[in-house]
Design goal:
The chain has 443 residues and is an alpha/beta fold. It folds into 2 domains: 24-121, Roll (Nuclear Transport Factor 2, Chain: A); 138-287 and 356-442, Alpha/Beta hydrolase fold, catalytic domain (Rossmann fold, 3-Layer(aba) Sandwich). It is built from 15 helices and 14 strands. Strands 5-6-8-7-9-10-13-14 form an 8-stranded mixed β-sheet, with helices on both faces. A hairpin with a 2-residue loop joins strand 1 and strand 2. It is globular.
């Protein structure tokens, strides 16, 4: 059950954010995710013998409640690192609670069984090192703080505006899976900030905002029943479009939606219910069911090992079991699906049942641009081919393929791996140019 991820809400980004040791960091994330969701028994099942003796059933729930009584409700995992040697490792999860930032230290033995758990104050981290890409020209744009949506789910956003009288064409950026910040930060990289600064330097306004599951993770976890992508992404994306449509400095008929990863997968559905969206752009958006992509990622990562470990084989089997439950005709909204150490309500999967992004896009009266990287192991060329088949008869559909780019549309390694996300980079200038040219051509 190793290399599991925090899964309060969704799993497709499980390996997108694998910035650290891919086994123990993810297992630690899963443990904290289960604690935050109140699934104490799931953590207790992973105890080594000595841990089970030290913390009998029920004690873990008491400890977590004591932590939240002092630090406030859990909000998000900010960072994960792995320390240790000789097969005995600890995942250090830097977590933001409502009133404090704590390090949750989860220790494991060689078999991945939990051997220790403790909490300690965490120092505020230094700001992530990020420098502007060469194609960004700050003198050509400025930024404004805005609020996307309304209470109780109001989100902090940033509108990057070209200098000049306007009005300007504009793009709303929609995140991939997981609790993303406004820049979609992963390691030293900020792909959404690259896109915003790069496009604004070319005359296109860009709106980006904190994802609801990051800002309100604790609140959502506490009321997860009935949760779907509508609450996760769709409502906020439409609220961002509405915000732009009300501004005099934005062209009301040139507001585009750009979704990355899961955001690209959902982009057609978001646009189907919003006539203000003039076109959609999918960056590495899956055209297949999300658990299909998750399972394919696990098989790929297993292929990188000289001999696939029993742990990853167990993960594959667990996802296959989850897939069978998701596909079952008896699935009910209140059912709980366990996927890679986390839980998702049946409502989430029922809401996506029968959703085919390419087919929905083909039925929209607006253009679509699909971009894909050749070194993306998370959303692959099989997804690009799915988009092409669905949109083969649509003259409004355009496709761009970048052989050397990874899931972040940065130059990927050979072979591609989670280690690529640790290296600083920027969204390719060719991608910025392709998007800007397409938008200006539709304007």
């Amino acid at each position: 059950m190793r290399r599991r991820t925090l899964l309060l809400l969704w799993v497709c980004g499980l390996l997108a954010a694998a910035q650290l040791a891919p086994d123990d960091a993810a297992l630690g994330r899963a443990a904290v995710g289960n604690l935050a969701a109140g699934h104490y028994a799931a953590v207790e099942r992973e105890y080594a013998a000595k841990m089970a003796a030290a913390l009998p059933p029920g004690r873990l729930a008491l400890i977590w409640r004591q932590v939240e009584a002092q630090a406030g409700r859990f909000q998000a995992i900010l960072k994960a690192t792995v320390v240790g040697a000789g097969g005995y490792n600890s995942a250090v999860l830097t977590c933001q609670f409502a009133r404090a930032r704590l390090n949750v230290v989860v220790s494991f033995d060689r078999d991945g069984r939990l051997t220790g758990l403790h909490f300690a104050p965490a120092a505020a981290p230094p700001p992530t090192a990020w420098t502007p890409p060469a194609y960004a020209h700050p003198a050509d744009f400025h930024e404004q703080a805005v609020t996307v949506g309304r209470a109780p789910w109001a989100l902090a956003g940033t509108l990057t505006l070209p200098r000049g009288p306007g009005p300007f064409p504009a793009v709303v950026l929609v995140h991939g899976s997981g609790p993303e910040d406004a820049d979609e930060t992963i390691g030293p990289n900020k792909p959404f900030k690259d896109l915003a600064w790069g496009l604004a330097s070319r005359g296109v306004a860009v709106l980006r905002y904190v994802k609801r599951t990051r800002r309100y993770g604790g609140e959502i976890a506490a009321q997860l029943a009935g949760f779907t992508v509508k609450q996760e992404s769709i409502q906020d994306a439409r609220a961002a479009v509405e915000l732009l449509a009300q501004r005099a400095d934005i062209q009301p008929h040139a507001i585009f939606l750009l979704g990355h990863s899961q955001g690209g997968y959902l982009a057609p559905r978001i646009a189907r219910g919003d006539a203000a969206i003039a076109g959609i752009i999918s960056l590495a958006g899956s055209s297949r069911p999300l658990l299909t992509s998750a399972l394919e990622q696990l098989h790929y990562l297993a292929s990188l090992q000289p001999q696939p470990s029993p742990a990853i084989q167990k993960q594959i089997e667990a996802v296959e079991k989850a897939q069978a439950l998701v596909d079952s005709p008896g699935l009910k909204p209140a059912d709980v699906i366990s996927v890679l150490g986390g839980t998702i309500p049946g409502s989430y999967f029922l809401d996506l049942r029968g959703y085919h992004p390419g087919a929905v896009a083909a039925g929209l009266p607006i253009p679509i641009l699909v971009l894909q990287g050749g070194r993306d192991y998370q959303v692959t060329q099989a997804d690009l081919e799915g988009w092409k088949r669905a949109l083969a008869q649509d003259p409004r559909a355009s496709f761009e393929f970048f052989p050397d780019l990874d899931h972040l549309f940065m130059v990927g390694g050979v072979p591609p791996s989670p280690q690529d996300y640790r290296r600083p980079g920027h969204v390719s200038a060719a991608v910025i140019q392709a998007i800007e040219s397409w938008i200006q051509g539709k304007n």
